[in-house]
Amino acid sequence: MSDRQAVDKLITAPFTGTPVMETVSSLHGLRTIIERWKRSGYSIALVPTMGNLHDGHISLLNHARDCADRTVMSIFVNPIQFGKGEDYERYPSTLADDKNKLEKYGLDLLFTPNLDQLYPGGTDIDTRINVPGLSDILCGEARPNHFSGVATVVAKLLSNVQPDFAFFGEKDYQQVLVIKRMARDLCLPFEIIGLPIVREPDGLAMSSRNAYLSPDERRRAPEIYKTLKAAAESLRQGNKSMDEIETEALGRLQEAGLRPEYVSIRRTEDLQRPAPEDTRLSILAAAWLGSARLIDNLKVRVKPT
Ligand code: PAF
């Protein structure tokens, strides 16, 4: 079905409560549908993704559907958030499977732009959104332009969909904060909502990149979550310094055969180093396992010291 037919079908269909998913690839098609929905007074939720959908994405979709009359998901692997030598070219693409899942879970509109739609001037652009400070720490240290790439594409999606709510998973907790800060600083009238990590039964945070793990690596991968849980327990007990806890956690990951980039205890609110009076903390980790870069985080409440 062409974008034109999809638009016609979607904007003329009466709202029966049983969503019929349509797919558009052009900004024109997307904007036409959004405009009609806005005129009808529907609230809209957006779930931006890069596809290869798992239960974490489905949880975002379910919340989006609970919050708004109409739900849009985008699937777009955004080149400018990948560094040189990262996995842009091999990022798993499973569009047919993704569409089947989305039909089942009741998405209204799937937006699958191509590169030209979102980067009409090419991807080597100077116009980018930077959220300095927050983007330069933790994952931003190893991936210098990553968060500006994320903020830029999310700004494009938000400004075209104009959602009341946009949903992001907290496995990428730093990403959620970067997007919230961007929305605040640019006075964007969209509510940015982060939702809890969805885990496999053995604790591994769901991620499209888990597909890169060999069976042996997959068996070892839950060690990240176990390490975070042990670190959280040490923090709650309050007998060790934060430096000691981080060092122990790094050692534990190395012993399990992972190559940790960082384990860091931060303030949940803004990812700064905690002050003694801070009680809402997060432990965040990034580690390589084979060719997969895995990230995870855990929130902890502690007593003020
Ligand atoms: O989390 C992701 O999948 C991506 O970073 C996002 C938010 C869709 C932007 O490309």
Describe the protein in words:
The protein is α/β, with parallel strands linked by helices and 305 residues long. Helices cover 39% and strands 19% of the residues. The model has no long low-confidence stretch (mean pLDDT 95). Pantoate is lined by residues 48-50, 78, 81, 150, 153-154, 172, 175. Pantoate binds next to strand 2 and helix 7.
Task: Count the beta strands.
Answer: 9
Distance between the termini: 62 Å
List the bound ligands: pantoate
For the report, how would you describe the main beta sheet?
6 strands, parallel
* Secondary-structure element string: HEHEHEHEHHHEHEHHHEEE
Low-confidence stretches: none
Characteristics:
305 residues, alpha/beta, three-stranded antiparallel sheet, 9 strands, 39% helix, 19% strand, globular, binds pantoate
Element layout with pairings:
Elements: H1 3-12, E1 22-24, H2 27-39, E2 44-49, H3 55-67, E3 70-75, H4 95-105, E4 109-111, H5 115-118, H6 139-142, H7 146-161, E5 165-169, H8 173-185, E6 191-195, H9 215-220, H10 223-237, H11 242-255, E7 259-267, E8 280-289, E9 292-301
Parallel strand pairs: 1-4, 2-3, 2-5, 3-4, 5-6
Antiparallel strand pairs: 7-8, 8-9
Bound molecules: pantoate (PAF).
Pantoate binds next to strand 2 and helix 7.
